[in-house]
Amino acid sequence: MKKIHITFASLIVVLALTPLTIPHWSVASAVSKSFGDGDGEATATEKKKSDNSFAHALGAPFRALAKIFGGKRNQQARRVTEKDIKQFESTKTQRVNDATTAQVALSDGGTGAGIADRVAQGREALERNDLNGAIALLSAAASDDPKLNEAHRLLGVAYCRKGLTQLSTESFERALKLAPRDSQILNDYGYALYVAGNYQQAIKFLKKATKLQPNDKRIWNNLALAQSRLEKYDDALKSFVRAGGEFNGQINVAKMLERAGRDHEAIAHYKIAKQKAESEQQANADAQNVSVAVEIKNGRVINASVPNHQAGMEGYETSALRIARQRRYPSETTGTDLLAVKVNRLPGI
User: Fold this and answer.
1) Cα-trace Rg, the chain
2) HSE-up of 182 (CA within 13 Å, CB side)?
3) Beta carbons within 10 angstroms of residue 267's beta carbon
4) How far is it, in rounded angstroms, from Cα 132 to Cα 159?
């Protein structure tokens, strides 16, 4: 199960208590939309008993976070575990017992158009998580044109997601040999190395990628994850900030510290995040923060509710529910999440 990273949008959505949703691969794996996208209609409130049952069960996820941001006394706090941390990393790789991939008959009569079509089809298969299909298509394209670096890059991603580390490495090395200054290849190879536990090498390639694309949030986020694994938390904080801003950067590095059992340091970063959130609130005093519990199935929000309804807040809660329902997660995501949605002052209030 993959859980969720929430986007910071300064005017509409802030104070999310889980990290920023930034795709790790350069190829999309279920494109997500930010909270502000779309014009989906929403009903006024959802206060059914069944809705609240899963919302109240969420509780405060982290002990240090609960101390800083508050919470009910009867909520049982717990330490961040390895399972927790994987919730805001990449999609879990899928290991297979048989390393062979099903072969399909693919022929274009030697035309370049057929090769390009197979690369495009392979990318589409990868996006819908059809890894075997993607590998078959991309392998055929790479065989017909060994100098096609895009086919090798996508093969590297597909093999990594199947848990075939050696094949993934070989594909990325071929891609890099053909295009050594391609930031997408460097990012994807770096993230594949991170998944494989080779954090030092991951940092090496991801740093090269940031120099080529200094404004790519995806690369900075991947770099921060690798730096955190080597306990380079000061560097990780800088990278997380570059990826998602000061608030998300402080929250993310705090979670990594708590995972490592360094609670006192984690609390210090949570406090900074809280101060940042409060200053944002004061800068827009008319805005209201609304907690929304959501249930996700296959990347889509199928249920949303406000666990702690407040009298006189119906308008804000309705807007918060509409925003939450528009959220899109990677297609393999199924589970629950608790969002903090900031709604600006409504007309006439």
Assistant:
1) 22
2) 19
3) 18
4) 9
From residue 62, give the alpha-carbon distance in Å to each of 33, 71, 110, 316. Answer: 27, 11, 57, 27
- Is 23 in contact with 90 (CB distance < 8 Å)? no
pLDDT of residue 82: 54
Give the bridge partners for 295, in sequence order.
303, 336
The answer to whether residues 64 and 274 touch, using CB atoms and an 8 Å cutoff, is no
pLDDT at 200: 97
- Residue 115 has a CB neighbour count (10 Å cut-off) of 20
Which is nearest to 340 in space by CA: 295, 291, 293? 291
> C-alpha dihedral over 268, 269, 271, 273, to 10 degrees?
170
> 49: exposed, middle or buried (C-beta count within 10 Å: 0-12, 13-18, 19+)?
exposed
Q: Which CATH class is domain 112-239?
A: mainly alpha
pLDDT at 157: 96
Give the Cα-Cα-Cα angle 134, 144, 185 (nearest 5 degrees).
55
Report CA-CA distances (Å) from 38 to 235, 318, 325: 36, 16, 10
pLDDT along the chain (349 residues), means of 10: 34 34 58 27 33 32 47 42 47 36 42 76 93 95 94 96 96 97 96 96 98 95 96 97 91 92 93 84 73 87 89 86 85 78 68
Token duo for residue 285:
């005093």
Domain boundary assignment for the chain: 112-239
Rounded CA separation 142/146 (Å): 5
